[in-house]
Design a protein that fits this description.
The protein has 401 residues and is of the alpha/beta class. It has 10 helices and 15 strands. α2 links the parallel β2 and β3. 40% of the residues are buried. The protein binds S-adenosylmethionine.
């Protein structure tokens, strides 16, 4: 989409640039970025080659009187203090107060739009008071605020990841409706499943093969292989090093053409069955009480340690960094660049777990672009026909006719 004026954006808490990729795809242009993570910044620079953009290594150091104007502020502000997985200290935690730094910049610069992203836990933190405060602060600055909980699995990646997106538009002239993104548009956002690809000739089962279309975990083993011949494989322990001590996986059997693994959990039955293409939660492998370890055709939410696994070559293995980046909608090239600059796997897992899902942010950004285009069209028709209906309605409202 081409707008008459290209809108610009500021990428706060930029991480590895999920918002940057999304907003650039929607036709917007970055003026700068801000993050205090040395490794994320290193990858951001190496991948985007963006020497000309402004950079801040701490949001608290941004002096708004020196900051150029921009049209869209985007920020996935730190979420640990609101996350159900954390201690949930909210605004009492300095990481929670980062929201007020965002509000400070919005108040001083008043960009036309903002897009904020955070964990689902923000909605019910402190009985909903935290979210209410956030909405009130934003509305008091002068923004019309809309929000929606969006799940990555409906936006082209097989990851069950729910995040709240808050979009604001400054001033009365902003009428654009960004949400709901599903509902009326739901046919565009169907659920994606982790895909299995047939074994490739000359490829051993142990090799990892990835789809070039990029989004899914792709496994080479299938029921027509060894499992298909013998009908039953018994493995007491998964072969992946970290989980050697665990008894999370008990048996591998073959149901029809599908190899199944029993994954121990805390249900009455005592296990879930996982097959190729399912995501398996590897956290707390010794636990006998954890439930819901298996995601059918879908990874559960990636975290910063990557505790997600999948079945490959008749064993459970942890997802690779490349797979984690794909589950977040990032291009494969980014992992290649990360390798070239020597970033270790643990850093890549953390970056992927912290990131926004690019596809979701892109859908939101494209809705903003649509609103802008409609506004431009309206403006044009007003200029072309000064007596058009909407002008007359405004005059009646103002009591000027
Ligand atoms: C939830 S992550 C955002 C990730 C990003 N949206 C992406 O796609 O990769 C939050 C980020 O805030 C950064 N951060 C935390 N405190 C900060 C501060 N005071 N100034 C700038 N960045 C900060 C962290 O390093 C982290 O990368």
């Amino acid at each position: 989409m081409v707008l008459n004026k290209q809108l610009t954006f500021l990428d706060l808490f930029s991480g590895i640039g999920g918002f940057k990729i999304a907003l650039e795809r929607a036709g917007f242009k970055s003026i700068g970025f801000c993050d205090n993570d040395e490794y994320a910044n290193k990858l951001y620079r190496a991948y985007f080659k963006n020497d000309k953009e402004l950079f801040y290594d701490d949001i608290r150091k941004i002096n708004t009187s020196e900051l150029p104007d921009f049209d869209i502020l985007c920020a996935g502000f730190p979420c640990q203090s609101f996350s159900i997985a954390g201690k949930r200290r909210g605004f009492e935690d300095t990481r929670g107060t980062m929201f007020f730094e965002v509000a400070r910049i919005l108040k001083d610069k008043r960009p036309k739009y903002f897009i904020l992203e955070n964990v689902k836990g923000l909605l019910n933190h402190d009985g909903g008071k935290t979210f209410q405060t956030i909405l009130k602060v934003l509305s008091d600055i002068g923004y019309s605020v809309q929000w929606q909980l969006l799940n990555s699995k409906f936006f082209g990646v097989p990851q069950n990841r729910e995040r709240v997106y808050i979009v604001g538009c400054y001033g009365k002239e902003c009428t654009g409706k960004i949400f709901p993104l599903s509902g009326s548009n739901s046919e565009n956002y169907s659920e994606v499943r982790i895909k299995q690809i047939p074994p490739t000739i000359g490829n051993s089962q142990g090799n990892r093969v990835y789809f070039t279309d990029g989004l899914s975990t792709c496994l080479t083993s299938n029921g027509g292989g060894q499992g298909g011949k013998t009908g039953l494989y018994f493995i007491n322990k998964p072969r992946f090093d970290k989980y050697k001590q665990s008894d999370i996986v008990e048996t591998l059997k073959v149901a029809g053409d599908t190899p199944l693994m029993k994954v121990r959990n805390g249900t009455k039955k005592g296990f879930d069955e996982a097959c190729i293409g399912d995501g398996i939660n590897l956290a707390y492998p010794q636990s006998r009480t954890r439930r819901g370890r298996v995601g059918k055709g879908c990874s559960q939410t990636l975290d910063t340690n990557c505790n997600m696994g999948t079945i490959d070559d008749y064993r459970i293995r942890r997802l690779t960094p490349l797979e984690c980046f794909r589950l977040q909608g990032f291009p494969d090239e980014m992992v290649k660049v990360a390798r070239d600059i020597g970033l270790a796997d643990c850093r890549l897992y953390k970056m992927a777990g912290n990131a926004i899902t690019v596809n979701v942010a892109e859908a939101v950004a494209r809705k903003i672009a649509d609103c802008e285009q409609s506004a431009e069209g309206l403006e044009k028709s007003k200029t072309a026909d000064p007596f058009n209906a909407s002008n007359q309605a405004a005059e009646v409202e103002n009591g000027s006719t």
